[in-house]
């Protein structure tokens, strides 16, 4: 029998895997991620390197929180915030016709996407994160 | 909920601090002041850059071949006069779009502008292919179109 918790758990673990993978790959290649951030022309220069160094750790933290039980809601909240930011970044790049390369998953070729593909990927991630956040909120309420 | 948001915000700031601290333990730490790609390249491999004035002059005198490194959708929406579209994604597979210029022909590569990386990717590939006079118009399509020039 499939319990009501299974879809929520699968979604939470999927989200955790995505953020852990993205965080670790970016942590290993911070220079590529810094260049990617700069290519969006949204972040002021003094903030590019601090973000390139800090966001990967935040993603790893969010992914780890989603894996465990106690901080699942906070992890989902962080994932939702990150996915919302990615959506804004990619959508504005797409509208401005920029050929961005965020290196969101390091330099793995098949995970590099066009701005339109980036918007789609970010929106899917945002929907998943928001749903997991809702489930976690209900679980804790 | 507000307490959770504050906790997540605090975690974000802590990650920024931890990331900066860990940076100093890396074998090749990132300089804290971000430098665009062109300034980060070592001197011996640096691709020369061309300003908007240089582009205007090259366009007037027809002395250079312009190469648009953006994807075809963007190229079709507008490009520099006479530009050839050689997207970075094609160059990665060794496809130079039938570019048959003399190796000494001045080639000027551009993409959107800002710090878009594709112009440097294509320019580096052209240098590796044997072209001797390759430069990058860092201002790219954004600067060209903003200056009132038309395709």
Key attributes of the depicted protein:
heterodimer; A: 141 residues; mainly alpha; 5 helices; 77% helix; B: 151 residues; alpha/beta; 4-stranded parallel sheet; 4 strands
The stretches of 5 or more residues of chain B where confidence is low (pLDDT under 50) are: none
Oligomer: heterodimer
Rg of chain B, Å, rounded: 20 Å
User: Uncertain runs of chain A with pLDDT below 50, 5 residues or more?
Assistant: none
Kindly report the average pLDDT value of chain A.
83
**SSE arrangement of chain A, N to C:** HHHHEH
End-to-end C-alpha gap of chain A: 25 Å
**Largest interface, counted by CB within 8 Å of the partner chain's CB:** A-B, 34 and 40 residues
Number of strands of chain A: 1
Q: Can you describe what's shown?
A:
The complex is a heterodimer of chains A (141) and B (151). Chain A is built from five helices and one strand; from the N terminus they run H-H-H-H-E-H. Chain A has helices at residues 5-28, 30-39, 45-67, 72-96, 115-140; one strand at 104-107. With 141 residues, chain A is mostly helical. The model of chain A has no long low-confidence stretch (mean pLDDT 83). Chain A is globular, with a radius of gyration of 15 Å. The longest helix of chain A is centred in the C-terminal third of the chain and has 26 residues, at 115-140. Chain B is built from seven helices and four strands. The mean pLDDT of chain B is 81. Chain B has 151 residues and is an alpha/beta fold. Helices cover 42% and strands 9% of the residues of chain B. Chain B is elongated and about 60 Å long. Chain B has a four-stranded parallel β-sheet with strand order 2-1-3-4, covered by helices on one side. In chain B, helix 6 (118-129) links the parallel strand 3 (107-110) and strand 4 (134-136). Classes of the chains: A mainly alpha (141), B alpha/beta (151). The A-B interface holds A 30-31, 34-35, 38-39, 41, 45-46, 48-58, 61, 73-74, 77-78, 81, 96-101, 109, 114 and B 4-5, 7-8, 11-12, 15-20, 22-23, 26, 28, 30-34, 36-37, 40, 69-71, 74, 77, 88, 92, 111-118, 141.
